[in-house]
Amino acid sequence: MNKHTKLAILIAPLLLIAGYIASDYYLEHQAAQDKVFYLNQQNNCDVLADKCVLESGEFLISVSDRQGTTQINATFPLDTVVLMLVNDDNSQQIYQLAMADSPYYWQAKTDLRESIPRAGDSRKLRLVAKIKGGSYISEFVSTTISR
User: Fold this and answer.
1) Are 104 and 77 within 8 A, CB to CB?
2) Which of 40, 59, 67, 132 is the most exposed place for a label (fewest CB within 10 A)?
3) Are residues 48 and 115 located together in one domain of the fold?
4) Closest to 70 (Cα-Cα) out of 58, 79, 57, 83
């Protein structure tokens, strides 16, 4: 065996370990990049009747309103949640929701009940939920079926 072969056999394990560490850093960097995912309505959305579920794969968010407090329930822990109530002139009222009991439950006082006064009325809502490097966004219409 010549000296080049011996050197290659000696250096190969070190290159293998260095490559493994470098690929781990690369994958960690890729995972930390901001990503945007879209949430879709499962069925017709009636926030006032607790019948509004948004989904993206296995991730589900339930949106409901009880006595003027809008509540968000998620299948994964959230970092922040923002709910926007879109008016007829396309202006928005922004509500930063606060964590209730755990990162799975969020709530805030909103004017949602007052903005959908009668059965059959609807209101456009936007939701932005953040989890680590990902943002889950949705624009949906909440229609009141019965009041």
Assistant:
1) yes
2) 67
3) yes
4) 83
Residue indicated by tokens 């019948």: 51
Rounded distance between C-alpha atoms, residue 85 and residue 66, angstroms = 16
> pLDDT of 56-85, one tens digit each?
989 999 998 888 889 999 999 999 999 998
Strand segments, DSSP code E, in the chain are 35-38, 40-41, 53-56, 59-66, 69-74, 80-86, 92-96, 98-99, 105-109, 122-131, 134-143
**Is the predicted pLDDT of residue 143 greater than 70, yes or no?**
yes
Whether residue 72 contacts residue 79, with contact meaning beta carbons closer than 8 Å, is answered with no
- Which strands form 53-56's sheet, in the order they lie side by side? 40-41, 53-56, 59-66, 69-74, 105-109, 98-99
C-alpha span between 64 and 52 (Å, rounded):
7
Q: What angle do CA 95, 34, 24 make, to 5 degrees?
A: 145
- Expressed as residue numbers, the domain containing 86 is 35-143
Q: What pTM value is reported for the model?
A: 0.72
Q: Say yes or no: 77 and 19 in one domain.
A: no
Banded pLDDT at 100 (limits 50, 70, 90): confident
User: For position 13, what pLDDT does the model report?
Assistant: 92
